[in-house]
Structures
1.
Amino acid sequence: MTLTTGLGGSPRGPEFVSPGIFVSPGNEERAAGVPAGAPARRWPLVAAAGLALVAVSAGTGGAAGYLAGSPTAATPTTGATSVPPPVAGVPSDLVGAAARALPGVVSVQVRTGSGGASGSGFVFDDRGHIVTNNHVVAAQGSVTVVGSDGRRLTAEVVGTDPNSDIAVLRVTPSAALRPLAVADLSATRVGEPVLAVGSPLGLSGTVTAGIISALDRQVRLGGTVRQTAVQTDASINPGNSGGPLVNARGEVVGVNTAIATLEGGGSIGIGFAVPIDRARQVATTLIGRG
């Protein structure tokens, strides 16, 4: 059983088993993470069966998904055992945050001979570098980005890092492409309002609101090693991949990467983003190499 979400009905990656869900004999390989395309076996219908973590790029023919593993239920999250002091100066003006973020967010479109994929990205610096997800550009086709002003620019892939699911593109610098500021994660708190900005289902310039649900959620994104991710309940759907999760100041908290979904459905209010500290470090390294 392969989950299908987003444009074109392309596979988004195999299921994973949520903690506490029974795995029938012979299906352990699905729980361990067998790549998409392997022979599928049906799971028993039990409570919460079908819960899966899937990439949120939107394919238009080719498979743009990647493998993502199950969260670790026992991992404590920031703020789970103690109540932090109130954060002074956290604004509540999400309209202003959207206005600051949108000029720095782009749609990313990949075209290959057999189809392609689409996702989102954001401007990393004033030299034309764009951060997105590795799984968005993994099809290795021609890449273009569309800015908030509607201009379409040819992009070069500077470098990719599958383990962190981060990729860097480069386009001709433009005054219309404004670099986004990054947040200080050490000062970020669970419960803060955030916006997911990107092009879900090809709808460019879409903004959805929520809060930070957890800061140190252990998940497997892109590679085989579990890493911490920022969890949010902001609506994230296919096409949001690579777009920024921003706080109420318009600063990037993380790079939207995956969602939990039930039986191939869309967002159920559990999304994950690569923390901006890790994404910035990887992007800086890729730019230095490229």
2.
Amino acid sequence: MRFLKALLDFYINSSIHVALSCYALVRMTGYLFDITEIQSPAWFAFYGTIVGYNFVKYDALARTQKLQMRTELKGIAALSFLSFLATGFYFLQLERNTKIIAFVFLILTLLYTLPFFPNRRNARNWAGVKIYIVALCWVGVTLFLPIVNAGLSMNLTVMLVALQRFVLVFVLILIFEIIDLKIDDPNLKTVPQQIGVKKTKIVGGLLLVVFILLEFLNSDFSFTTLFLKLGIAFTVFLFLLFAYEKRSKYYSSFWVESIPILWWGLVVFLQ
């Protein structure tokens, strides 16, 4: 059991799980827009997420606290390096315009992590900004990147899906912010810090209603897609409803991050 727990912790701490969630959302984009050439954007997103998330999580600690390289951290460093090489390989497979999109979100990731200006904190610590940057990056990588790579136009349907995905990711992050309420720096001014847990859950619930209502504006409306999104919205709502500060780290870092994987899995199963 100890070995299995260590394996699960490495799987989560090395960002493989969140990378699978990102991969699943790219594949969802392929399903929604009937994109056949989806492998390169999907694997670029997968490996890029591992590199980006590990960089965000461990760079500051390594620089400020001089982390000792425990066995797990050495494994994460090795995985990140291999993922960096894989990210570069799949980056070269992308179309020219897609590479520009990918570069833009790379800059956002760096801005999120590194202080670019003297005596200024990074974007991650800018009050109230973190949640918007993360949600925007997820929409860009999982939706705009494969859309541009496939040469599709940015029509109303794409914009509606982008708004839906932004809302969904935003609510998922709210769950993380509720659980991390006691350990987050008060200066971050996360949503629960500013309005409280109860109001945060109300906001999240209302946003999920918006997530569903937007589906009725889609010109490619189908009942199958609607029912799937209703199921996902209800699942997210339950996780939001039962989120509180003393929840296990696995509640958010494993179960909540599994929701995009579940969504894609249901689509594959029903096809």
3.
Amino acid sequence: MSEGRLVLLNPGPVNVHEKVRAAIAAPDLCHREPEAADLMAAVSTKVTEVCGAGGDHRSVLLTGSGTAALEATIASVVPPNGRLLVLDNGHYGERLHRIAAAHGLPSQRLEFGWATPIDLEMVAAALLADPSITHVGLVHHETSTGMLNPLRAVGDLVAGHGRTLIVDAISSLGSEQLDMAADHIGWCIGTANKCLEGLPGISFVCAPRAGFASLADLPTRGLYLDLHTHYRAQVQAQTFAFTPALGVLHAFDVALDLMLAEGVASRGRRYAELAQLIRDGLTQRGVQLLLPPEHRANSLTNAHLANGMTYQELHDGLRRRGYVIYATQDRAAGVFRLANMGQLTEADIAGLFVAFDEVTTERR
């Protein structure tokens, strides 16, 4: 580990490439100048490519966390006579429901239980029972548990029932397989600072151009987070609706170049190899993992605390040695998270377990 460097094992923000970090120091620029419009167009095009989308799709950028893009999408795309079906098997599925409730949107929460796989038969039954459902919300990688939900199967099912799929791909895009057309995704939401290895502050929504255009006929439920406002400005007028975080956008542009050069499949393999090192190291130390192998994403491992150690004791001991781990939400008490997103190496993982053993020994 480099002197003074923290190894971030939390699921975003992540350790970024030096080129990404340097890019945030780009020269000062007015967001109404042509250079800013060129940067916006370049980033949008690259995001669309990472989403596996074609020329009939567009991506709209927002200055804000991934939750900002989620809220913009849900509040903007569900029509007054529509209804959102939320597939909830973790904290972030629950968040989709909370966003809908905050805007007074009709919604149904199909709750499976944390760390419980989505039951496709239950989804099909819900769609058959309620023809007013127009949209289905799915979290691809549910980081509260580390579960990778079955995007392709859900997409096929939703499309087969003539509904539109909204996908929270915030923690999966850039690492897990995702294809807008093949997965029947109507609206794909992502962020810069997880598997795309950018810095926090930029999120985005990718959708068919026709989908964005159709928002013109729907009521506006907000100002800053009105998706059609951003679409009109960015795609039609080729400018920003509001002042963006240009420095972060410069850094994201560089991160996307690195992403496209590596390729989603290659990055996924790199992450999977690091995840396996983490899982092997934990298992060798008698630490029980939360999920069986078939449900795990390749960028995050959730594990049970062992030997009577509290999360705070483990976190603080590792933090003193330069490693940052992550807690879970209250409903997953007794579990901690180790993410392997970002610019991590095998040496980082080896160093983590040296530190882990020291903390464990200290407590005895």
